[in-house]
Structure formats: C-alpha cells, structure tokens
C-alpha cells in the first residue's frame, strides 16, 4: 500500500472533477532561499486557484506522500534544513523508512500520476549538464518524461544545462517538446534561444488534445510544455552568459557533483545577479502555473 495523503482541498477537487495542477517542492527546499521560497510557494498556489484549478504541492513528510500541503506543512518545509531531494531512485526508500523529502520534477510526476493528476507546473526541468560527456550527469527528469503520462509546464531549460543535448535526449526518448506561441525554444530566464522548438502550439486546448491522443494511442510518457517567460520579466541571454560561466567554473573548482550541482549553480547565479535571477524565476513559475491551470481545465472538457 502507498501511504498517499490528499489535502482536504485536493480530495474535494478529486471527487468533484475540478481541475488540479501538481506543483513540485524541490524548487521550495533547494531552488530558492527562505523566506522568498515560502512566499512564492503560496503565491503560485493562489495563482492556480485564481485560474480556476486546485493546487497540489507534492512532498514526502514523515513517510507519507502528500498530494497538496496544508499551510503549516508548507511553512515547515520551506524552513526545514537537510531535506532530501527525491527523484525516481530514492523516493520509495524515503517513504518506506518514514523520511521527509522534497520532490524533483521526476518524483513529482510519479506522485501526480499515482494521484491521477495529469498536469504539473514548475520553473525549469533538469536536463543534460554541460560536460555530460565526461560526468554522465543527465537528470532523471528526462527519462521520467518518457515513461510517466504527465504534461509538465516549464519555461524551457536553463542555460546552466547543455540545452541542445537536452533536446536531443528528449527526442531520443520520444518526448514531445511543445513551445507555447513561438518557434524558438525558450531559455528559462530569457524568452528565446537560438534553438528551434521541436513543436509549437498556441493554446492550452491543443496541448490537452495532444496529451489525450498519446493516451489513446497507448504511448507511454508525458509532454514537456515550454512556456516562455513574459518579455517584461526576462533577463537578456547575453547578460547571463558570463555569469553562468563563472558559476560553472566555481562549481568545478569546488568539486560539486551529483544532486548538489543544480542547487549550487542556482544559488551562485542568484548571488552573481544580485537577486535578479530570482525575480525572473518567480515571474516564470507564476506564468507556468496559470498556463498549466488552463491545460488542466481543457483536459476536463469533453472535446479535448
Ligand atoms: N531547475 C530549476 N529549478 C529547480 C530545479 C531545476 O530551474 O529547482 C530542480 C527541479 O526539482 C528538478 C531538479 O527536477 O532540480 C533537477 O535536479 P537534477 O539536475 O539533480 O536531476
Ligand atoms: Mn544530476
């Protein structure tokens, strides 16, 4: 048996057929500093409600898989120290041993699917790290997208990754990468990149239909929806390039590896941009939460 626990709000939505949007918790524990992380987590939940869906922030707390957190649980998680960062490999072990951990994109997808939630909003997914030809550091998020039927809304992939290689792996794994409203694949803090998006769709209804069609065809896996950061909130790619280079060089100097790489780079970039990266990050996560709510609503409608 899986100790799966829905919050009161999510349980109600589940039985009433109200659209639900899953949200991850690693962004709270490892992606942003306190107290902004708590403010953002609450704000993103409010954005989902305002858009007509119900938010389900996912985390493992004392061995229970929580689908939707009460405000007291969210507050505790945002301040907790040494919380595990859970992916496919370690999630079951954490639940089985009564542990507490935040869920990455991969783990959140697994939990959402178990709870029958089809849409998930986040900031950015993990991908192929620079230098992966030596380190073999490729996020389990990519393989999860290939096998778990959840549509994930992100703002593209961060330039801390090798974005071209990330797109190649997604193609090899058979993951549809759909950019919203433009031809260029967005680069997280910047709305465009030199890379062309494999697919483009201009509205939530089409994305919901594509999600359903994969299911009808018996194709496993989800979809990656790349939703560009709003122009007024973006940071120019040229401004970021030297900062990312410096952050990567620091990570190498300090021998950062494995799970620690992404949180380290995010924190370094936050420092080097004097907080600008966080302001942009907040804007894009909120934008993704609103768009994911539209997809969740479209999935509930008969003609999707
Ligand atoms: N990218 C971001 N912010 C994040 C993450 C990625 O812009 O917070 C987190 C997500 O939870 C993602 C995880 O699933 O990092 C990927 O970690 P890794 O590269 O270790 O797989
Ligand atoms: Mn990794």
From TrEMBL:
This protein's name: Pseudouridine-5'-phosphate glycosidase
Chain's role: Catalyzes the reversible cleavage of pseudouridine 5'-phosphate (PsiMP) to ribose 5-phosphate and uracil. Functions biologically in the cleavage direction, as part of a pseudouridine degradation pathway.
GO biological processes: nucleobase catabolic process
Statement: the UniProt record of this protein carries the keyword Lyase: yes
EC numbers, comma separated: 4.2.1.70
Keyword Manganese attached: yes
Catalysed reactions listed for this entry: D-ribose 5-phosphate + uracil = psi-UMP + H2O
EC category: lyase
InterPro entries: Indigdn_synthA-like, PsuG
Oligomer status and interactors: Homotrimer.
Active-site residues annotated for this sequence: 24, 158
Span of the signal peptide: none
Binding-site list for Mn(2+): 137
One Pfam family recorded for the sequence: Indigoidine_A
Cofactor note: Binds 1 Mn(2+) ion per subunit.
Gene of this entry: psuG
Taxonomic source organism: Sulfitobacter litoralis
């Amino acid at each position: 048996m899986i100790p799966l626990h829905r919050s009161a709000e999510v349980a109600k939505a589940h039985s009433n057929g109200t659209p639900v949007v899953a949200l991850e918790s690693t962004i709270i524990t490892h992606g942003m500093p306190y107290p902004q992380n708590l403010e953002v987590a609450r704000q993103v939940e409010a954005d989902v409600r305002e858009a007509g869906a119900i938010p389900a922030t996912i985390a493992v707390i004392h061995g229970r898989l929580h689908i939707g957190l009460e405000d007291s649980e969210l507050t505790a998680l945002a301040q907790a120290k040494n919380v595990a960062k859970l992916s496919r490999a370690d999630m079951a072990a954490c639940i089985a041993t009564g542990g507490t951990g935040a869920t990455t994109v991969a783990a959140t997808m697994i939990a959402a699917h178990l709870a029958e939630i089809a849409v998930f909003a986040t900031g950015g997914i993990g991908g192929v790290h620079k230098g992966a030809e030596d380190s073999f550091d490729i996020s389990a998020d990519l393989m999860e997208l290939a096998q778990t039927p959840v549509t994930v809304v992100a703002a593209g992939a961060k330039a801390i990754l090798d974005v071209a290689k990330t797109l190649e792996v997604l193609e090899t794994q058979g993951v549809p990468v759909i950019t919203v409203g433009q031809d260029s694949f967005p680069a997280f803090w910047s709305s465009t990149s030199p890379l062309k998006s494999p697919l483009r769709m201009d509205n939530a209804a089409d994305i919901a239909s594509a999600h359903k069609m994969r299911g009808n065809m018996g194709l496993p896996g989800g979809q990656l929806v790349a939703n560009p950061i709003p122009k007024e909130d973006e940071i120019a790619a040229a401004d970021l390039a030297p900062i990312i280079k410096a952050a990567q060089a620091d990570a190498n100097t300090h021998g950062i590896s494995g799970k620690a790489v992404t949180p380290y780079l995010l924190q370094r970039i936050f420092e080097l941009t004097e907080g600008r990266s966080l302001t942009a990050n907040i804007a894009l996560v909120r934008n993704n939460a609103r768009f994911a709510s539209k997809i969740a609503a479209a999935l509930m409608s008969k003609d999707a």
